[in-house]
Amino acid sequence: MVAETSEYLATEQVEPSGRRRVLDAAAAQFVAHGYAGTTLRQIASAAGIKAGSVYHHFDSKEDLFIAVLHEGIAAMVQAFGAAKESTADADTVDDQLLTHVRAHLSAIFENGPYTTAHVTSFFSAPTEVRQLVVPIRDDYEQQWNRLFEQLFPTVPAKTLRLHRVILFGTMNSSAEWFDPDGDISVAHLASAITGQFLNGLTGPTDSNGTTS
Q1: Residue ranges per domain, the chain?
Q2: 63/96 Cα distance (integer angstroms)
Q3: How far apart are the first and last CA of the chain?
Q4: How many CA atoms lie within 13 Å of 28's alpha carbon, on the beta-carbon side?
Q5: Does the pLDDT at position 144 exceed 50?
Q6: Which residues pair with 211 in a beta bridge?
Q7: Who's near 125: CB < 8 A, 6+ residues apart?
Q8: Residue 116: C-alpha distances to residues 30, 108, 119, 211 (Å)
């Protein structure tokens, strides 16, 4: 699945500028209005093209939505892979988890509506559309499940999955309220989330929100 994602990104990097404008506009519209509230006419207007021109690049709104979500999850997969590589020699659970949390948050806030659409619009899409995206979402979540099994080998798998879902909920919901240009940095947010999460599993946190 990671190989397929890499191929998808390689394709995206050589797309015509018109297709990219449509994708960017669609991602922003889906986040602003949800799947049901977004029309191809709105997307075309935001992209600065005629409504019929959208069909030169995509067959339908469903295809556009799937393309947006694929790009968003691809960014998260890449971020996870980079975090995994950078923590290969890390000694502590704290450092490894913090790096992955920071990578996930960075993917959300550095890729704008492409990743945010997963949080705000995914569950409002028709079931048949969601089903086409679920496999790559599941693959990404499985990578986190395996990471948790590695970091917390004595914790039952069922408990780990529950805590992973809780962590995902915390990280993903930040897309709806956190301002990366505000007084708190993404790195600080990652530290606070990691510290709060580990406090429930391994012990107290220090004044900076990280585990001691």
Answers
A1: 2-199
A2: 36
A3: 37
A4: 12
A5: yes
A6: 205
A7: 35, 65
A8: 9, 6, 5, 28
- At 211, phi and psi to the nearest 5? -75, 150
CA distances from 148 to 60, 79, 95, 132, 153 (A): 38, 17, 13, 26, 8
Summarize pLDDT for 22-59 with one digit per residue, the tens. Answer: 999 999 999 999 999 999 999 999 999 998 899 989 99
The residue whose two tokens read 């999955």 is: 161
pLDDT tens-digit readout, 51-91: 889 998 999 999 999 999 999 999 999 999 999 999 988 77
- For the entire predicted model, the pTM comes to 0.80
58 with 67: CB under 8 angstroms?
yes
Burial class (CB in 10 A: 0-12, 13-18, 19+), 62: middle
**What is the b/e burial string over 64-101, where b = at least 16 CB atoms within 10 angstroms of the residue's CB?**
bbbbbbbbbbbbbbbbbeebbeebeeeeebbebbbbbb
Residue 13 carries which side chain, given as an amino acid letter? Q
Hey, which CATH number is domain 2-199, 3.90.70.10, 1.10.357.10, 3.40.1350.10, 1.10.10.10? 1.10.357.10
- Per-residue pLDDT tens for 170-192? 999 999 899 999 999 999 999 99
Q: Which of 92, 96, 116, 95 is nearest to 105 (CA)?
A: 116
